[in-house]
TrEMBL record:
This is Photolyase/cryptochrome alpha/beta domain-containing protein. FAD binds at residues 291, 303-307, 344, 347-354, 439-441. It comes from the Eukaryota. Keywords: FAD, Flavoprotein. InterPro entries: Crypto/Photolyase_FAD-like_sf, Crypto/Photolyase_N_sf, Cryptochr/Photolyase_FAD-bd, Cryptochrome/DNA_photolyase_1, DNA_photolyase_N, Rossmann-like_a/b/a_fold. It holds the Pfam family DNA_photolyase. GO terms for cellular component: cytoplasm; nucleus. Residues 27-164 form the Photolyase/cryptochrome alpha/beta domain. Belongs to the DNA photolyase class-1 family. Residues 281-303 have a biased composition (Basic and acidic residues). One of its GO terms (biological process) is circadian regulation of gene expression. One of its GO terms (molecular function) is FAD binding. Binds 1 FAD per subunit.
Amino acid sequence: RADASPPLQDLLQAVENGVKRSPTGSAVVYWMRMEDLRVSDNRALSRASAQAQKEGVPLIVVFIISPQDYVAHDRSPRRIDFTLRNLVDIKTRLASLHIPLYVTEHKPRRDIPRLLIDLLQQWNARSLHANIEYEVDELRRDIAVCRLAKGAQIRTDFVHDRCLVDPGAVFTKDGRVYTVYSPFQRNWLNVLNSNLKWIVEAPLPQPNGEAIYSHNTLKELFQADVPSEVEGFKCRDKETMTKVWPSGEEAANQMLQMFLCTKARTSQMGLANPLSEGAEPSDKKSRAVAYKDSRDKADKDTTSRLSPYLAAGVISARECVRQAMKLQGAKKVQATRDTGLGTWLMEIAWRDFYNHVLAAYPRVSMGRPFQEKYADVKWEVNEEHLQAWKEGRTGVPIVDAGMRQANKMGWMHNRMRMITAMYLVKDLMIDWRLGEKADGDLASNNGGWQWSASTGTDPQPYFRIFNPYSQSEKADPTGEYIRYFVPELRNVRGSDIHNPPPKVASKLGYPLPLVKHADARERALRRYKYPGEE
């Protein structure tokens, strides 16, 4: 039913059918969510500010903490902590513009639309602005907000902001949404370059007048603090996360510049501050320039590490593209495999692709495989194997290194994501949805997991199964990545680091492999070829 009537279209229709001209109130409200945590280049915030300036009233920013949503969407304590730390930075920046950030916590989550409209009525705000979220639950929530707003004579403005090119703007020749990446990327690039309005930076919000501090109701909003934690989501390694993932737009932009303009370092492989000094500047051998050839190597900081910041909206995809174009000296977006930077921009195109799929085929965010023919694939139910995979105790060094990196850093190198995901679903034959629950950003996360499981759009064919040992030799040729994250093997040299002999593993206290890859491969081929059978 959701696929037959995608809720994104229902939301856009609800906005279109909403209040066109509301009476001028006492304020304009921008509703910030977990995926647009920035002040710069924020379309909904910019539009809200422009509306407030036009009406001559103050702008208010509101953020609603929703613990039930965090449980429903498998949000981790680290993700919630990252959100709260960024909110602290945002509150400080907005305060310098005399704009209050009002943070409140609410449950049950189904009542959030009513809470939000009640707040607007309390503040006599007649205009609500927000960026669109493409997940099913969020779209349905926002449709409910629009209906309540219409009854309260409040104008709603929900706008696209997450992607470079909006969902609904890239179609096949016969008007369908692309489900294969390569032709999508080519058309996406043509659409993007045919009108560079897509990457124009949204204006910064304008300051409120200082009279807001004298307003009987609105002045109190400045006193609403951002909590240091949310009950049930206490971050146990907050100090480490603060070091490894510094909060704020300034940090995200510095990380982008270091990726674009400095060389990779082995010292940044693990629990290191990404902004630490010592990176060697280079315009010809920077991480971005070398990305095409080095991105799959895990023994240095060869990637941008910006995925947490893009997922939370601390930096916009548009800013990444603009800075890449500046470095290239280009007037058009050059997202091609010819160069390192072009290859990196193609990864941002993947992000758009999966969001377009999410918007057009809501079932992928509802626990359904995109390729329904694989809905009956027989999965193993083996809690011991699943737990060993989560903890990095599978007996396959590259898989264990990747999982331990995720456990330590809350993040994993992209090549390791592919290797560990493929191992879970093809070698251990465990349902991809159990792996997805442990992951982050829904669109890219779901797309990646279903790619590995051969159940998604443009998937890895089921008969192509990664050999984790040969993958290890390619991704970690020196073995330093494994030695860092799997200290039991720190003294192992040569090819044994990738597949330790049983005697060596036992002597070092390292587990033996849970399964034999050759046998597991045959099992996976059989079960995918004949879904539903053992």
